[in-house]
Task: structure prediction
Amino acid sequence: MPPCEVKKDIYWVGAIDWNIRDFHGYSTYMGTTYNAYLVLDEKVTLFDTVKKPFMSDLIHNIHKIVKPEEIDYLVVNHVEMDHSGNMPEIIERIKPEKVFCSKMAEKGLRAHFHRHDWPLEVVETGTSLSLGNRSVTFLETRMLHWPDSMFSYIPEEKLLISSDAFGQHWATSERFDDEVNTRELMAHAAKYYANIILLYSRLVQKLIKTVGELGIEIDMIAPDHGLIWRGEPGRIIEAYDKWSRQEAINKAVIIYDTMWHSTETMANAVADGLVQEGVSVKMMSLKASHRSDVMTEVLDAKAVLFGSPTLNNGLFPTIADMLCYMKGLKPRGKIGAAFGSYGWSGEAVKLMTKAMEEMGFDIAGSVRIQFVPEHEGLKECVDLGRKVARAMKEA
Ligand code: FEO
Result:
């Protein structure tokens, strides 16, 4: 994809990864992009690089604007390999006068590449760097989402280069939010938040407050993945504010798997109970839904229900995987419930309940049925759905 001028003399020079389908456990079924930005000023500056296999895309794009060796400064906003995997080759190629990064990024770069001859210069929140006609102010955003993460803000342009934050995994030929369908864009942004940023929601709240207090004016947000927020940068800040407060709607997500359809039959009956009480329900069989799509639905759900058969005295493997993944992302303020069919031991319901309690869910109830549910058993499942709905109303 050719370079794109995002502001006068500031270019997107990144790469599009149309074919990636798994981003360490996150299903990127629409690919992603690795964004890098080149600022032409007295000091020509490259902000971030791309994933290693895309080195030639980056160099080609830079070449269309300047000779790579004319780049004076390199800014590393984030150490993770999708943005710094080609650092040795890039530094060798452009031979920058300086490489700016946070203190934690300095440690991270050394731990990844074991190079002590790079011209690293540590910056911190508030450090201002002159590029000539423009300047860059750095803002460390530790644990959003790595310890090294940082934003670069160009006040003269009201441009925030935001590293992973405000990104989306979505490969497109368009570069700006106002060139694509807003609904689709926000769905990708929500999935990205639910699977990457959710765990750090308290820090997001703190960051939004800090940005407000500092009076930073923003008319463009340029993340390292996906579309650049040009039309309505406030839209994604408002969404992050809402998502990080983990505001829930009148929605329940039923996450289940099944061996011989008994637990599935129970899931449908639980859903009936919820719907009868006016709750919107998302049924997510783990045979049909990827864990990262489930998390996207969990983001704004008031209740999360798990259904698993008991297999070998334990959880069905897909349910164990989902619980482990969800636990790491720390959703808050949910009402939980568990159900499942079993043959002779029936530990799964207890295990799911314990896992949800460990996540801080408020448990509304549970149902276990031996082998195949019949009328009475299904009535219990409907009642469980109703009970969860009542707990949602009271919460
Ligand atoms: Fe896009 Fe945390 O790397």
The first strand starts at residue 4 and ends at 7. The chain has twelve helices and 23 strands.
